[in-house]
Amino acid sequence: MFEYLGGMTHLTPILDQLIDAESPDDDPAGRAAFTELDTLRLIRNVIDHRIAVRTAQLNRLGVAKRNHSTLRKLLIEMGFAPAVASRVLRAADGLSDLHRLSAHAADGRMSAEIVDAVVRGVDHIEKRSPTSLSDVDRAIYESELITQVLSGATPAEVLRRARTLGNIVAEADGGIPAADDRRLNAVVHNVTDDGRVEIAADLTNVIGEKFIAMIDDRSVPRPEPDGANDRRSPEQRRADALELILDQACLGATIQTAGAPRTQLILTIPADTTDLSTLPWTGTVTDATARALTCDGTLTEVVVDAATVPLDMGREKRVYPAELRKAVVIRDACCIKCGAPPSHTQVHHIQHWADGGTTSLDNGCLLCQRCHTQVHHHGWDVAIGVDRHPWLIPPIEVDPRRRPLPAYNRRTMRLDDAAA
């Protein structure tokens, strides 16, 4: 346990006054209650800010370290809920660099939830940027998110705007936004003491979109046999949906399903703004991700105006039919880059469908999801040679001369063999 650090402070009389304060009984219109509630809201905001300031001070003084523990544990043992303790620590760490936000929080104009959203938003943009943000750039993004707040945005809306800005800065500077970065993917499962399994995942927004869409489609309430409403909770329905997905996966993939379209997604495209396109469940996606989705999925484009009213419903992207997928599998045999089996692959349009590429044998190749991402995001190119087989062209970082490599199933070949 932590050693006792408390005691009487100059705030104790204020605390006593709040405890002893009584609401007036004669308030039929509720004006006094409304005024007091609004004042209490401002007091709460100021107190939350002071909590963050004092937490930052404890961190600088190393109080938790002296007690051989962490600041988060100290806050929890003081009585803060774990989620609140985490939020306080984020504010304590982030406000030191966000001076305008700190000023707004200090006078009670912003709640702890709003402050946390802006702190997390700026941190998100910083992580998405391929290079460290300069003080000027950080101040610009801070101001933009604060402007969102002052216009009435909720914490969730602030975070959505931060994600959009993060995607824009990442793509503009040639980087990969974290929402698209498969290197950050992780799935962790743990068997508990009572034999249950806990699962946690951190996934790209496209994988998350697929997961949520499949879970949502299979977890709708169903009437009970007696006609009563579904007695399962939403959490239980989602767990049953996950089991159903696993059972369906156990059926396995065959040559007929290799490279088959995996997803049916709707892409919303703003008609008159610079905002990025969005997916229904996971939000904004970069242009590169939107283009990658056209290779392996049924993607319907919906163009909307500023009020999100559909202006145009694009036709579904053309995907490879079964007979063409079989032909691609026969020719390529596996992922052309790493050799993954056909059941693990997708059919990639070498020239993007959006750019006029055809859905044909000479414009497709097998790529597993990992290699597909490298082609779309990491500078790898694919070309069909005079032999009507796909060839991989590595990025300059891998081969400064960018010499073509044969597909995996033809790796014994050399360029002079093809020429002959």
Quick synopsis:
The chain contains 15 helices and 12 strands. With 420 residues, it is α+β, with helices and mostly antiparallel strands.
Give an account of the 3D structure:
The chain is 45% helix and 13% strand. The strands form 5 sheets. It has a 3-stranded mixed sheet with strand order 3-6-7, with no helix packed on it. Strands 10-11-12 form a 3-stranded antiparallel sheet, with no helix packed on it. Strands 1-2 form a two-stranded antiparallel sheet. By secondary structure, the chain is an alpha+beta fold. The protein folds into 2 domains: 30-174, no CATH class; 256-420, no CATH class. The chain is elongated. α8 (135-150) runs antiparallel to α9 (155-172). The relative contact order is 0.06.
Secondary structure: helix percent: 40-55%
SSE run:
HHHHHHHHHEEHHEEEHEEHEEHEEEH
Strand proportion: 5-15%
Q: What is the CA-CA span between the terminal residues?
A: 78 Å
Strand order of the largest sheet: 3-6-7
State the helix count.
15
